[in-house]
Amino acid sequence: MPIRASLLAPRGAPSPYRDVAQRQRLIRAQRLPFRAPRLRARRRLRLVSLLRALVACLGLATIGILGWQAGRFLLTDTLFEISDVRVEGVDRLSPATIREAAAVEGQNLFAADLARARARVEALPGVERVHVTREWPNRIEIVVKERQPFALINAGHLYWVDAEGVILRALSQIPVSPGPILSGVEAERMGLGTKLASDRLAQGLSFLRELHRTHGSLAALLSEVDLSRAIGVVLYTLDGIEVRVGSERWEERLARLEALLESLSERGEPVGSIDLRFQDLVVLRPRGDLHPRGGR
Question: In sequence order, what are the residues at sequence separation of 6 or more whose Cβ sits closer than 8 angstroms to the Cβ of residue 61?
Fold first, then answer.
């Protein structure tokens, strides 16, 4: 059904409206007023952003200048010159030796290289570990952990070593009640502070740790631990009895040895040697007897 042309349903496409009036000079010079607030807001926003950036730059510059001045003050003022070095934890070493090795007196508290000072102190013979801290405004505290004598070894001369095999000092004579002396250790470069890389010494130190851990009272009855034998560890008591304990199962064998020595002491039986290397078997040799005999 054809549609009739009307105002609501025109036949053709609508044409745009045209301005048929003549523009006066005053009208032509006018601008649309609705754009003016948006332009002013954009300009205001740009100005605010610029001011904020300027303030931030000025703040950073001020902080940088103040930080530089503060750093210069901390690093150059005599108030922070180290004049007091406190040493704690020393018994065998003197505090003067520790201070001389650290070499931090007179330096600036904040510029002093504490890691290097700690390394110099730890290089001293007899020092195991060091902790160095700063204390406001001009003090350094050095806490030292000394190496403790653990075993006396005979390697051409007598030396005290710690539990890691580091030589602490040399001795000219045997001290009173030193405990069992480790003998048969290979002689190396026996300088103070040197850690001996000896397999025999490592075995002897391991044996002493087991001895003191489980049978401390038995250690008082021993005079020597011989590490030179191919058969393993050989002990000598204060009475001159030779005891062969081998290279393993020390805890069990030491327990048997302690009970056996107590029994022999009660019976008053003289024994020249004891061999504990066999399972469930103890081999005894009386003094003066060339042939060993077995016993359980």
Answer: none
Report angle CA 263, 264, 265 to the nearest 5 degrees: 90
CATH code of the domain made up of 151-295 = 3.40.50.10960
What is the pLDDT at residue 71? 66
Stated length of the chain = 296
Q: Could you say which architecture CATH assigns to the domain 79-146?
A: Roll (3.10)
Q: How far apart are CA 78 and CA 170, in angstroms?
A: 44
Task: Please say whether the beta carbons of 269 and 237 come within 8 A.
Answer: no
Q: What is the pLDDT of residues 221-276, one digit of tens each?
A: 999 999 999 999 999 999 999 999 999 999 999 999 999 999 988 888 889 999 99
Residue 150 pLDDT class (50, 70, 90 cuts): very high
| pLDDT attached to residue 55 | 85
Neighbours of 117 (CB within 10 A): 20
Q: Where in the chain is the domain with CATH 3.40.50.10960?
A: 151-295
Q: Residue 239: CA atoms inside 13 Å, Cβ hemisphere, count?
A: 15
